[in-house]
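User: Fold this, then the next.

Assistant: Folding the first:
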Amino acid sequence: MHSTKYEYSPVANKNSKSGYAGVRWHKGQEKWIAQIRFCGQHIHLGSFPRLLDALDARERAEEFYGAMRKIHRPSAKFTEK
C-alpha cells in the first residue's frame, strides 16, 4: 500500500468552510459531509446538520482507519528486496 502526502493529510484545504480535513459543507443538502480516504478510495461517513457531528464522525473514522492502516502495512520481513 502506498499513500501520497495528501491522502492522509490532517490539513484542510485553504478554501475549506469547516477548517478541517475531510469535512465540507454541501450547499444543496445544507449539511456537513464527512469523508475519509483509505487505500485510494473516498469513504462517505455521512451527512450531518451540525458541524460537530461531522467532525466526530471524521475523528472516529481516523481512529478506525488508522488502526486498519497498521494492519494492512506489510512488515519488513515480507517485503521483497
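Now the next one, as you asked:
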Amino acid sequence: MSTVPPSAAPSAARPRADERRVLFWTLLSLLAAGSWAALSLWSASAYGRYLEHGGWIDAGALAALCRAVPQGEVLVPAALHAAAWAREQKPGLYSMADVLGLGNF
C-alpha cells in the first residue's frame, strides 16, 4: 500500500491563486451588500431608532463647554491648543506667533 504525499496530489484539486482571489472578492462584496441590505431593512423596522448614532462626534463635557461659551467653537479649542503648547515650553517670554508656530513673523 503506497501513499501519495500531499505535495504530489493533482493540482486540479486545489484552486489556483487567481480563482481564490476572485472568490474572496466575490464573497466580500456579497457580505458588504448583505450588510447594507440588513441595515436598510432594520432601519425600516420598529427597531430603527437604535441605528441613530448622531452624538458620536460630541466630546461630552468639552462639547457642552463649547456651546456654553460665546464663540466657544473657536475660543475653547484655541485655549486648549495654547495651554498644551505652554505646558511643553520652558519658562520665558513668548509671543502669539510662537504659540501659533509662525516663528519670527
